[in-house]
Amino acid sequence: MNCQPTYLNQNMMEVENRLSERFDGLVDELPDELNERRVKNGVILEESEEEAEAMEGGVEGEEMLKSDGLHHNSGRIIKKAKRPIKATSFSEPSAPGVAPTQGLVNLNRASKNLRRPRNSLGRGLPKKGGAGGKGTWGKLGDEMELPWVDPNDPNYDSDGEEAAEVGKKTIKLNTLVPEMSEEDVRKAVEPLMLEYFENGECEEVLFSLEEMLLNIGSRRWMVPALAIELSMDHKPSHREMTSQLISELYQKVISQRDIGKAYDFLLRQLSDLILDTPDAPTIIGNFMARNIADDCIPPKFLQSYKGHVTEVEAVKALCRADTLLSMKHGLVRLDNVWGVGGGIRPVKYLVKKIVLLLKEYLCSCDIQEATRCLKDLEVPHFHHELVYEAVVMVIESMHEKTDEAMCKLLQALFRSFVITIEQMRAGFQRVYDQMVDISIDVPQAYSVLERWVLRCRQAGIINDDILKKMPSRGRKRFVSEGDGGLIKDSSYW
User: Fold this and answer.
1) Residue from 415, 421, 348 nearest 387 by CA
2) pLDDT of res. 123
3) pLDDT at 422
4) What is the rounded distance in angstroms from the CA atom of residue 369 to the CA atom of residue 191?
């Protein structure tokens, strides 16, 4: 048995004490995260190089562990220093929030080349999953997920970054619809209104306007304005249809403000509208009163113009509307402000209107006014009644002035194509059929009729067919007793 000198044992004890004084306190204070990552739930995640070599070496490896590990060959227990982690970088500054560890600054140079992260925040795995190294870019596909994209790159897409920042927030995209100009609105609405005047389908107009409502935008007021402006050039029945259309579109396509803007525009354009429609102020006043009766605009709308309107035509239109609303039962009467349509009016009413028309004409001899009144009745299929009543008035009056006035009226109506040749033929034929009854009241009816028919033929109102059908007196008149029974012919033939 070899005995070592006492001074050697004392030296060895001093070395061990110095080592313990140098490393024991510091090693205990170092973070042990690496070992905690190596063993997780009983599974070894990573092994050190020395342990791997020891496992491959078999028995020799065990002896090496015993000699270099916790058990010394002599059986004396020596605490093995833990492998230091690279909490402090030799070439780069430490990670933010991690203070450099004392005692590891002066470690050997080989620890710099380790592939583990140099701060305590890493997972202990090789850089880039083992695909790192000098001159390498990482694994295949890593270039598709770059941590930073250059905004100056032509392929740069900011939507991806915004989506990442927003997270789960839903991004709503609003449809951008271009707004139509006034000219485009006029081109789109005018054909729609003209078609409505032909078929009278309010629902079709409503559906079409709802489709283009986004494009019309703030110019919705042009819809009632164009409808009223177009109805001025048409019949009163079309104006009634326009009033019904405005009432139907109210609170669906247009509002009170839109209707107010439309009337404000029309009142400003009255000076131009009068050139085409002389009674434009009266028509606009009727429309205002009708819309107030339909609750489309409030009654205070008229009061808002008091003291602010200086044009004579605009004042006339406002006074017309105020007068209609001030009448007794005015709101009820405004339902027929445009009259009743010709097709639904009773025959007696039409006959009364035609007789009144002819009487007023005989008093004034105003052919234009008579023509206008006849057109306002909107009964072109009933114009034969005017011819019949005119012939009966001529027979009953038996005056030259009446014959001449009625001939001029029928001539003007026939040449202006208000009364057709068929209506003219039907009117004269009705008189021919009623001559027996008319002659009872007017004994000279046949002679008066003959004289007036010849006048109409000379004026070009009737043709020879109508003239030949004219009846003569029923009693036969002989020339003389010795003529052999010859009958006196007509004075014309």
Assistant:
1) 421
2) 61
3) 93
4) 31
Per-chain mean pLDDT for the chain:
75
CA distance 469 to 282: 46
Chain-centre distance for alpha carbon 335: 31
Given a contact cutoff of 8 angstroms between Cβ atoms, the answer to whether 400 and 364 are in contact is no
| Residues contacting 78, CB < 8 A, separation 6+ | 70, 72
d(CA 107, CA 88): 10
| Widest CA span in the chain | 202
State the first-to-last Cα distance of the chain, in angstroms, to the nearest integer. Answer: 182
Q: Which of 43-52, 69-78, 168-177 is modeled with the greatest confidence? A: 168-177
CA angle centred on 399, ends 422 and 403, rounded to 5°: 25
Cα 234 versus chain centre, distance: 29
- Model pTM? 0.48
pLDDT of residue 67: 46
The string of pLDDT tens digits covering residues 370-398 is 998 898 888 888 999 999 999 999 999 98
Question: 70, 73, 72, 111: which is closest to 90 by C-alpha?
Answer: 111
**CB-CB contact of 430 with 388 (8 Å):** yes
Pairwise CA distance, residues 280 & 276, whole Å:
9
**pLDDT higher than threshold 60 for residue 98:** no
With tokens 């020879």, the residue in question is 464
- In the chain, the amino acid numbered 454 is L
Residue 226's nearest CA partner among 245, 200, 212 is 245
Predicted confidence at residue 142, as pLDDT, reads 66
> Apex CA 117: angle with CA 113 and CA 121, to 5°?
160
Alpha carbon 265 to chain centroid distance? Answer: 22
Classify residue 75 as left (phi > 0), alpha (psi -120 to 50) or beta. left
CB of 487 closer than 8 Å to CB of 478: yes
Tell me the average pLDDT across 425-436. Answer: 93
Whether the pLDDT of residue 94 is over 80: the answer is no
